Amino acid sequence: IAVQKTVFLVNNEDMPLNYSFEPCSLFCSGQNQGLSLKPMTGILNPSSEEEIQVAYKPKSSGEHIFNVKCTVSRMTQPLELFISGSCYKVEPVVSCSDLNTKKWNLNPNTTNVLDFGAMIPNQTKTFVFNLTNMGKTTLHYGWIYSKEQNKFKLNVSEKGGCISSEARVYCKMNLTFLAKALLKNFEVTLRIPLGPEYKILVQGTATMPLYKFSFTEHDFGPCFIQKTDKCFNKVILQFINKEKEDML
């Protein structure tokens, strides 16, 4: 990010003075990091001042110190202006885990595939994202995804916010299928301004559950009217789950 400050060059004399900033003094010693000054040269009228715009756009993290020199007519030594700036890198670490505690880190340099696997309609599955700020400055984040969702509902619990240095935030991504459907490459983006961007492709399927009843019809036949409920006709109906997972 470029930042800009204003300094004033003041002439308290009763005569005009020429000034010129030395271009080589606009760079850090041993670093490819420089300042931009406007104007670089000019004439100061008697008893006047001139605004000098100083722009600083860091190219690397760390502290940068500049010793800017300005040559002024009739002065034997140049004026010196000491400028320092610190640049902090946005350093997030994003991991994802499921309810089975399996955990992995997301890669900002490639597309991350998040597979919810096989589900049934009205079942909800959850993945938990751990956003950790490893940097020295506060970072901001936001989840971006389409609200146009057909036959499924996907949402993230914490859609955006800020994370202070060395702090973390947990975001839950919930997916619920509303009907039998196939979800493939639904794009979700975790955007961190001035930092990396994480692209996630969500996948999953919903099929009708594999189950059966021990019978679908039963005839109790002729029955007598009972005065009490101590004696009654009954039969056991069994519900058989053929899925590999528990069914609610």
Automatic annotation (TrEMBL):
<dbReference type="GO" id="GO:0003341">
    <property type="term" value="P:cilium movement"/>
</dbReference>
<dbReference type="GO" id="GO:0005930">
    <property type="term" value="C:axoneme"/>
</dbReference>
<protein>
    <recommendedName>
        <fullName>HYDIN</fullName>
    </recommendedName>
</protein>
<dbReference type="InterPro" id="IPR033305">
    <property type="entry name" value="Hydin-like"/>
</dbReference>
<dbReference type="InterPro" id="IPR013783">
    <property type="entry name" value="Ig-like_fold"/>
</dbReference>
<dbReference type="GO" id="GO:1904158">
    <property type="term" value="P:axonemal central apparatus assembly"/>
</dbReference>
